[in-house]
Design goal:
The complex is a heterotrimer of chains A (about 650), B (about 180) and C (about 140). With about 180 residues, chain B is of the alpha/beta class. Helices cover about 35% and strands about 20% of the residues of chain B. Chain B contains 5 helices and 7 strands. With about 140 residues, chain C is mainly α. Chain C folds into 2 domains: about 80 residues, Cytochrome C biogenesis protein (Helicase, Ruva Protein, domain 3); about 40 residues. The longest helix of chain C is centred in the last third of the chain and has 23 residues. Classes of the chains: A alpha+beta (about 650), B alpha/beta (about 180), C mainly alpha (about 140).
Chain lengths: ~650, ~180, ~140
């Protein structure tokens, strides 16, 4: 019954999406200040739909938890012997389940928007909900017509085929759901942007409604990408944390667009400038997340993280892309001209700096997009080329370096117009730090140019991120400003980690006999033994490696070479030793004919700072959301109190007081 | 506004992408990396015998009066079993096939050839894929047509199916 | 079409089996060069060469046997005194641009370099339009 209820819930939700779309569209027909009688159904439709979609997902989760092998999806992606946590996370470790998760989150956020957002004019809200319903409808159609997660098998399977062992990791519990939630947050931003564009309401009030969604999506994307990067780092077993792989780029591009959007929304909310640009970025950010979904699932590009690849489904997603993005860009081209130009500002102003960096972020986005899609272009002409780190790193640095420089001084500038001479001292100080760090590091050793530049920029940025607090009473600094400080500092921390990993990593590959000792960096490691061990659905060889730093107390690391039996696949489980100043990364390889074992060891100084930085950035985003929402609530409360008082005064002024009942 | 046209740029870029993506979806994705050594002479090499039954292979073995096939294979490769009958058919037509066994043990090579037939005149052992890399081959099995002067003329990627036999014969004829 | 799909499925199933050749890896597949400077050169190069048997991985990041053999080629050639550029060209001569993650300007890759240059020009123009002109406008006052 579970599957049938889930399927019914999905169909009902799809029907409600139609209602939401039609009813929302009627709101556009209403005259100014009036409510179309047919427009009142959009909000309840969105809310009920949210419950139904979440219910459908919960039912699938349940089916996976109890390993209901009469459901095709469970039988082909799960296994009764799997640990419960991987049974649950396996729900979205496949195409259908992950689309259902996506739809569930989409409907839930649509419901939230419909239930709680009362600040926008009804016409704008109607248009927004109509677009949201349209987007949701496409995904329902996709699920129901080509990827039904609840399909039954004619005869229940005896046993499931299991889940790809690389996915049997806690990373699967964190990375995809956060990333999807981030993508979905961008879809709400998209709907709001389209609603505002259609009803010509691109103004600060709209920006304040849009801002928490963009911030939220951006925080989730930041966290999701960082989690994915760390997951790949320890799971793939070669110590790389970013490969510029198409799938990685597919997740980076929405993040770049969302980062630009977030800053441009702030300008719109605070200064009523950058109206068209904000709408453009809203459409772009969602386009990039749809594009990512297409690239990941259609299989048009080869990737190490390839996931649930199917060209026919790719065609379906492409049709959705055409409808949403083609439609949005058409509306944009037709209507954006009607959006009145916002407030003006000079080049040396906070807006100026934000615009500069917005353009830089967009340029980096263009580079990543170009490098990712270019192999596809040449393949159309039967030529195969590869574009990798040696292209992406320098090409994006062309725009990233000026961006970091402006990012350091931008927050120090005043809105609208400022004299650069006013912050002369700060600029000189930052330049001195930048040059000093680069010079000192270059003297110590022979390091590549980009990591060197990264180190200098990181130091200058770290200092610069706290400068906006200078001369202010810390207790009175708004929470959102703290968020900005923290996030900018996080960028510096991340950049520092990347630069250190690039410049100072040390590698040791060696064939070691049990009892043998090798050296990597300050660490000496001794292979004590290699023994077989067994897990719930795998067997493994486990090495015990004693590691000691500068002759200190040894620590035992236990990397494994695992063999899963369903499906049959071997993985290498790296062992990590985390210290404040870096990570030691150990992998057990094969045994050579002479009995020695292949051991791979890396000492990666400050590599963890990459992800610490990402956490700081996310935390900064969360602080900004909390700060903004608190101010909004206060403001609403204040206006309510004010209205009450006015009503009271009016009542006092009236001749006959209303009698109490 | 003055520059309405500018607003259509995103749509135009998107349309280009959508067209490209749509086209690529209809194309069968090529899993193969083709060698760019076609038309080039074989590089110098001399491989030791892969097992005791047959001599090893060297570049000199390809220089002579007729074109030959160079077959890259291995006993641990399943598609190589599938193509074994076709190789025998080619040999029956008088084609000389020189094999190069990739990362293979002599006992396994001998076993494979007893079980699935031996179409080779020589089999060299390439334990570190050096010849494979030198001729631009990226997998097993692959078959190259080498003309009498030792120049690579044609590359067949993957196992030889029944309908590929005539194709290879034609290529051999062309290389004559 | 169906046959192709079946063959592909068979290939997928066969992958774990086919990878199981019993031979030890090539000497320099998993062993470093003694000279740290040469090893650094080799590592940097290996990170920019594509593993031909893998799904989008460099030969420095792969356990595929062929990646190991390619690493052996790189290290032993570096040891023999070849420069990284020579080794890269040697591989490109055999596998085309596909084998190198470092595209260079050629008949097939020039847009990769032309477009960023165009991009820089566009960015410059956009910034000049949006920001440069405003200063003189601001003098007139009257924001709209």
């Amino acid at each position: 019954m579970i599957a049938e209820i889930g399927l019914a819930a999905l169909w009902l939700a799809a029907a409600l999406a139609v209602l939401q779309m039609v009813s929302g569209a009627f709101a556009l027909k209403a005259a100014e200040g009036e409510v179309n009688p047919l427009a009142i159904y959009a909000r309840p439709a969105a809310v009920v739909q949210a419950f139904l979609a979440v219910l459908a997902f919960a039912l699938l989760l349940w089916a996976f938890a109890i390993t209901d092998l009469s459901i095709k999806l469970v039988a082909s992606n799960s296994h009764s012997m799997k640990p419960l946590v991987y049974k649950l996370t396996g729900t979205w470790g496949n195409h259908e389940g992950s689309m259902l998760l996506w739809v569930g989150v989409l409907a839930a956020s649509g419901g939230l928007l419909a239930a709680f957002e009362r600040r926008l004019p009804e016409r704008t809200m109607g248009a927004t909900l109509a677009v949201q319903g349209f987007v949701a409808l496409g995904f329902y159609a996709f699920l129901l017509l080509s990827s039904n997660p609840f399909e039954r098998l004619p005869v229940p399977a005896m046993e499931g085929t299991g889940l790809n062992p690389l996915l049997q990791d806690i990373g699967l519990a964190i990375h995809p759901p956060t990333l999807y939630a981030g993508y979905v947050g961008l879809s709400v931003a998209f709907s709001l942007a389209m609603g505002a564009l259609l009803t010509n309401q691109v103004n600060p009030a709209f920006a304040r409604v849009l801002r928490p969604w963009v911030l939220g999506a951006w925080v989730l994307l930041t966290f999701g990408i960082a989690a994915g990067s760390y997951w790949a780092y320890y799971e793939l077993g070669w110590g790389g944390w970013w490969f510029w792989d198409p799938v990685e780029n597919a997740s980076l591009m929405p993040w770049l667009a969302a980062t630009a959007l977030m800053h441009s929304v702030s300008v719109l909310a605070a200064r009523d400038a950058l109206r068209t640009w904000t709408i453009m970025l809203g459409v772009l950010a969602f386009s990039m997340s749809m594009l990512g979904t297409f690239l990941v699932r259609s299989g048009v590009l080869t990737s190490v993280h390839a996931f649930a690849v199917d060209p026919e489904r790719g065609a379906f997603i492409l049709v959705l892309l055409l409808l949403y993005i083609g439609g949005a860009f058409t509306i944009f081209a037709l209507r954006a001209g009607a959006v009145a130009e916002g407030k003006r500002f000079s080049f040396s102003s906070r807006e100026g700096a934000l615009v500069f960096n917005n353009v830089m972020l967009s340029a980096i986005l263009a580079i990543v997009l170009l490098g990712t899609l270019y192999p596809l272009v040449t393949e159309a002409f039967d030529v195969r080329v590869s574009v990798g780190p040696p292209y992406f790193n320098p090409a994006s640095a062309i725009f990233a370096v000026p961006m970091f420089l402006v990012m350091a001084v931008g927050p120090l500038l005043r809105w609208k117009e400022d004299k650069p001479a006013r912050i002369q001292f700060e600029m000189l100080m930052l330049a001195a730090v930048l040059i000093a760090v680069i010079a000192v590091t270059a003297m110590v050793g022979d390091y590549p140019f980009l990591p060197l530049l990264g180190l200098g920029l990181a130091a200058a940025l770290a200092l610069a991120s706290f400068l906006p607090l200078r001369g202010r009473k810390l207790a009175r600094v708004p929470l959102a400003t703290w968020g900005m400080v923290l996030a900018h500092f996080g960028v510096a921390v991340s950049l520092f980690g990347m630069a250190c990993e690039g410049a100072f990593s040390q590698e040791r590959l060696a064939a070691v006999a049990p009892g043998g000792t090798e050296q990597v960096g300050d660490f000496s490691f001794t292979l004590q033994s290699v023994t077989p061990v067994a897990g719930p659905n795998w067997t493994a060889l486990e090495a015990r490696i004693a590691v000691s730093r500068d002759g200190g107390e040894p620590v035992i690391l236990v990397p494994q070479a695992r063999n899963f039996w369903s499906p049959q696949q071997s993985t290498s489980e790296s062992a990590l030793l985390t210290r404040w100043d870096g990570q030691l990364y150990a992998v057990l390889g094969n045994q050579a004919a002479d009995g020695r074992w292949q051991i791979r060891m890396w000492w990666k100084p400050f590599v963890t700072f990459i992800w610490y930085g990402a956490l700081l950035i996310s935390l900064g985003g969360i602080l900004a959301i909390v700060g903004r929402v608190r101010v909004d609530v206060k403001r609403r409360h204040a206006s309510e109190v004010g209205e009450e008082r006015r009503a009271d005064l009016a009542a006092l002024g009236a001749a006959a007081p209303v009698p109490a009942e | 506004m003055r520059n309405r046209l500018f607003l259509w740029v995103p749509l135009a870029l998107f349309a280009f992408f959508a067209g490209l993506a749509g086209y690529m979806l209809t194309q069968e994705k090529s899993q193969f990396v083709e060698s760019t050594m076609i038309g080039e002479p074989l590089p110098d090499f001399a491989l030791k015998p892969a097992f005791e039954g047959l001599p090893g292979a060297a570049k000199a073995d390809f220089v002579g009066t007729k074109p030959r096939l160079l077959n890259i294979w291995a006993s641990w490769c399943l598609p190589c079993i599938a193509e074994a009958p076709q190789l025998e058919a080619l040999q029956a037509q008088g084609v000389e096939i020189i094999g190069i066994a990739i990362r293979d043990r002599p006992a396994d090579v001998a076993n494979f050839l007893t079980r699935y037939g031996n179409p080779y005149s020589r089999v060299g052992a390439d334990d570190i894929s050096e010849v494979q890399l030198a001729i631009g081959s990226s997998g097993v099995p692959e078959t190259f047509v080498i003309d009498a002067a030792g120049v690579i003329r044609y590359q067949h990627i993957g196992d030889i199916r029944e309908d590929d036999v005539a194709l290879l014969l034609a290529e051999l004829e062309k290389a004559r | 079409m169906i046959r192709a799909v079946l063959a592909f499925l068979a290939a997928l199933l066969a992958m774990p089996l086919t990878a199981q050749d019993a031979m030890p890896p090539a000497p320099y597949a998993y062993n470093q060069l003694d000279d740290p400077r040469l090893e650094a050169e080799a590592t940097a190069l290996m990170h920019t060469l594509r593993c031909l048997k893998c799904q989008s991985q460099s030969i420095a990041d792969s356990d595929a046997p062929m990646a190991g053999d390619m690493r052996h080629q790189v290290r032993s050639r570096i040891l023999a005194g070849e420069s990284p550029d020579q080794i890269r060209s040697w591989l490109i001569a055999r596998y085309g641009d596909y084998v190198s993650y470092n595209p260079t300007v050629s008949a097939t890759t020039w847009p990769l370099f032309a477009i960023p240059v165009v991009l820089i020009l566009i960015v410059g123009a956009v910034l000049a339009r949006r920001l440069g002109k405003r200063r003189s406008d601001a003098a007139d006052g009257e924001p709209t």
